[in-house]
Amino acid sequence: MADNSDEDVQERLKAALWFAVGKMVDEETLRRNRNVTPQFIGALTEMVWSQIETVALDLESFSRHAGRSTITTDDVLLLARRNGDLHQIIKDFVDKEKAAKSENFEEEFPFSNNRLGATLFNGKLTTSRWRRPPALLERSMAAALSKLGPQDWF
Questions:
Q1: Hey, CA dihedral for 57, 60, 66, 71, is it positive or negative?
Q2: 43 CB-near residues (< 8 Å, 6+ apart)
Q3: How far is CA 25 from the centre of its chain?
Q4: Does the pLDDT of residue 109 top 90, yes or no?
Q5: What share of the chain is helix, strand, coil (3-state, %, to 5)?
Q6: 133 or 76: which carries more pLDDT confidence?
Q7: What's the 3-state SS for 10-21?
Q8: Cβ(108)–Cβ(44) under 8 Å?
Q9: Residue 131 to residue 21: CA distance in whole angstroms
Q10: Which residues contact 116 (CB under 8 A, 6 or more apart)?
């Protein structure tokens, strides 16, 4: 039963990816006055799916190796280290988000003595209350992908 549900979710995700890739390819073909076959879109979708699976496994491995159960932006930066342009785009975005987050923290807690986001909570020093790596990770990946658009694929 659980396998059926997992397979169903996987098929839905693949269908959504096929739709998104098809939409991007259609936009590019119109812009470049080219034609592509449905087989091309299917092959490109399978390649992207395979890449997503590889990235997910690598990110999981990096976080597990660091002794964490949560994937952080450090894992994403480590993954992008071989693609200099992508690494720089993600790093700039993460640095900008961290700076904005630090400013927000200082506005919200003006008496905090730690600029990195640590604070005393029930007599203990904690940072976990202020860390939201999945959202930051999602925004940094979205920003990087939007800057590298489909024009870089061809």
A1: positive
A2: none
A3: 21
A4: no
A5: 75, 5, 20
A6: 76
A7: HHHHHHHHHHHH
A8: no
A9: 32
A10: 102, 127
pTM score of the predicted model: 0.60
Residue listed under structure tokens 């490109």: 44
User: How does pLDDT run across 136-146, given as a tens digit for each residue?
Assistant: 556 666 666 66
Please, is 39 exposed, middle or buried when counting C-beta atoms within 10 Å of its C-beta (0-12, 13-18, 19+)? exposed
In angstroms, rounded to a whole number, what is the distance separating the alpha carbons of residues 149 and 28?
10
The count of other CB atoms within 10 Å of the CB of residue 117 is: 19
**Cα torsion through 69, 73, 74, 77, rounded to 10:** 130
For the chain, where are the E strands, in sequence order? 119-121, 124-126
Contact between residue 136 and residue 97 where contact means Cβ atoms under 8 Å apart = yes
Structural tokens at position 151: 């024009």
Q: Is the dihedral of CA 81, 86, 88, 93 positive or negative?
A: negative
Q: Taking a C-beta distance cutoff of 8 angstroms, is the pair 63, 71 a contact? A: yes
Average of per-residue pLDDT across 115-143: 49
90: which 2 tokens?
């993600």
CB 79 within 8 A of CB 55: yes
